[in-house]
Amino acid sequence: MEKKRRNLDDVSFDDDRQKGKGKRHHQKIKPYVVLQYLLKYTDEEHIVSAENIVEALRDEYGMDAEKRAIYSDIKEINTVALMIREECSITEAAEMLEEDKSNDLRMVVYDPHRKGFYVRERPFALDELRLLAECVYAAKFISENAAKRMIDSIGEFASEAQKETIQHDVYLVDRIKTNNAQVMLMIDEINKAIKGWRNEEGIRHKPCKISFHYLKYEINNLKTQVERRKGKPYIVSPYKLLISDGNYYLLAYNESRKKIYHYRIDRMRKVSLLEDEREGQEEYQKLDIRTYSQRLFGMYSGKKKFVTIRFIPLLLDTMVERFGTNAQYKIVDDRHYAVTAEVEISDLFYGWLLGFGKRVKIINPPEVVEEFKAYLVKMNSMYQ
Asked: Within 10 A of 266 (CB to CB), how many other CB atoms are there?
């Protein structure tokens, strides 16, 4: 690992201005630097000796230190860490560490078998950091670049070796990510509208309406979305943010339709706060969020098969959301498109198709067509 020396000579400390023979500079901050080095390079699988630390302080930071001073620094680190965690005095923390024969209270532990130190106590365990990183990367509403930056930030809670493991494990996962780099900024604006916000003059505003432009797919170019309603903005009253299947949704009251609707946030552009107060409070209070979410975002399970479905052009967005842009789409005739995708065949899948009535039709493979017919007969027999 290539090491870059940090120059502390320009840092001014009052104690360092005292001149005397044998004076070592920056000794008051040495325990802090030692802790940062330990946090970065050690964990239960990777230890460093006092000699390693002395060498790193000299070569990387330009600080003089002795081996015995390192032991003293680590003792101070453990004492302060315990004082903060237990909310006790420095004296009480020191006494607790003196009585701690099993090293359970120490943040930095010495391993006598490997003859080195490592940081045992961190804000998050490694498996927790992996889970956080995976959740970030699995979220479709977070762009690729934003996800990598966030995972890098999560990695700061781990050692360098653990950080590489987290990044390696997560980046191997193949996910379809949004290309909308503004998602996080839009979520921030929507939260302001939901909770209320202060303007530049410090005046507090009540929850307010927002405006935004909403995007859709077109059959001739599935890589670039275009604005719906010929660019006319949507104006809604936002109430709730929901996450389902890696997507972020906004529940909002549409005044023109007198109804609560959901909108994909990664499909939004140009979100703006409006001065108008939010409407639709009564409609939102009538809503059972759990039931609403289950109805909208139901999951399907069954045997996987490649199926071709014919549908009217109005349903293109719905099909792309359900099957993704990597499925095969084509124009059948002036009134129909078709999609071929791998789906999980089940009653829930057939029920999902029935929701579109005559606007969709399974055309291949023949065995799935026959299974769907049998499903319709079964459903019909229930009402005989």
From this structure: 24
Q: How confident is the model at residue 337 (pLDDT cuts 50, 70, 90)?
A: very high
95 band by pLDDT with thresholds 50, 70 and 90: very high
Specify the pLDDT at position 176: 54
SS3 per residue for 187-213: HHHHHHHHHCEECCCCCEECCEEEEEE
Domain boundaries, the chain: 14-119, 126-171, 183-295, 303-381
**% of residues, the chain, pLDDT over 90:** 45
Among 3.30.70.240, 3.40.50.300, 3.30.565.10, 4.10.400.10, name the CATH number for the domain at 303-381: 3.30.70.240
Token pair for 150? 């966030």
Contact 13, 29 (CB under 8 A): yes
Q: Looking at 45-101, which runs of residues are DSSP E strands?
A: none
What is the rounded distance in angstroms from the CA atom of residue 123 to the CA atom of residue 231? 47
- Is residue 161 within 8 Å of 42, Cβ to Cβ? no
pLDDT of residue 102: 85
Residue 265 one-letter amino acid: I
